Amino acid sequence: MLSGVIQLAVAVATITLVLVTGIESILGLGPAIFLTAGALAALPAGRLMDRFGRVPVIAGGFGVGAVGCVLTALGCAADSAALVVLGFTGVGAMSGSVLLARTAAADMYPPERRAQAISYVLFGALFGAALGPLVFRPLFAGKDLELDTLVVPWFAAAAMAIVGVVIALLIRPDPRTIALELQAAGHVGEEPIVRTPPAPLREILRRPGVPSAAIAALSSFAVMVGVMNLTGYIVVGHQHEQADVFTVISLHIVGMYALVLVIGAVIDRVGRRPSLMTGLVIMALSTLMLAWAESILWTSVSLFLLGLGWNVSYVAATAELITHATPVERGRLIGATDLAAGLLGAALALLGGAAYSEWGVVAVAVGGTIAVVVPALAIFVGRRPTPTLEPA
């Protein structure tokens, strides 16, 4: 459900704000609002997950997103920039909260199968890749892109978010409960694993293995969302139809999630550190392609590889981060990295929008490539993590 709603936001967020304000130079502001709201929601959502459980936060995130979609629809109908901005804030907060569902997946598996566990949950987004075009493409087909055209699609997105609320509330038992039970039953040698209070975040971030994983999570997520959220404007800038954007975004989401079940198992087998670097290198190849890709076919290939590289690096990073945290620390750790990654992604969207307006798509391609190559080199020369504190 989240993936379906996000497709609409990615495809039309840039253009929605330009239409409602009439200012083309702020084309990166729409995605920036969306990403900043998601980032700011992630850390408090993670802390709430650690305290009250995963289900209430996921369901609440969908509820906030439904309200955001309705506000955006009303803003388009009333030609109100204020309502649209409030709506984007709600949709972004939903994304930041619901993406923490990968923490819930990791709660239910031992460390050696954690990447595969995360892949099970992320695989659900693949159905959103099909749901988005199925719902939204007919709503845009044959219509001029005006504010009135955007009203019904945003109401449809609100309905998807409400379905997400219902699905989340049906999750039983809460995955945090499972994680605590597994921790209490585990052993390292002859010493039982006991429940301990959460360590300060700064202490968790200094644990061996965490810095490299955090760097990979930040760079892969920020570049992926920064480029993805500019795709709608880039495609239209190549003189393609607005409806064609959904084809490109759909294939991007397929790249993000179609192979995730295989990739999760491969990461668990070959190791997380090599996977972090491999994913970033694939992303670099995809961003370089944007410099010359103009057709829907090659733009789709580029965005597919962008999603695939993100998949490899981000799943490995998440699995590594969670392995170095206890069940009552995971939400805040993942929330903190999502906060930083979201803010960085918002900054890249703003800079990318300004760069695209001034110098064209080549500037976006070069900037995105640098932003993933440098972290990959940093991880390569960094120190390797020591064994984890958790039982296998």
Structural description of this entry:
There is one protein chain. The longest helix is centred in the last third of the chain and has 30 residues, at 330-359. It contains 18 helices and 2 strands. It is mainly alpha-helical. Helices cover 78% and strands 1% of the residues. It is globular. It has one domain (2-381): MFS general substrate transporter like domains (Growth Hormone, Chain: A), CATH 1.20.1250.20. The protein has a two-stranded antiparallel sheet with strand order 1-2.
Morphology call: globular
| Sequence of secondary-structure elements | HHHHHHHHHEEHHHHHHHHH
Question: Can you tell me the CATH topology?
Answer: Growth Hormone, Chain: A
- Helical residue percent? over 70%
Q: Which ranges are low-confidence, i.e. pLDDT below 50, for 5 or more consecutive residues?
A: 187-194, 387-392
Second rung of CATH, namely the architecture: Up-down Bundle
Radius of gyration computed on alpha carbons: 20 Å
Q: What is the name of the CATH class?
A: Mainly Alpha
| Main sheet makeup | 2 strands, antiparallel
Distance between the termini: 33 Å
Q: How many separate domains?
A: 1
What is the total tally of β strands? Answer: 2
How many helices? 18
Strands of the biggest beta sheet: in what spatial order? 1-2
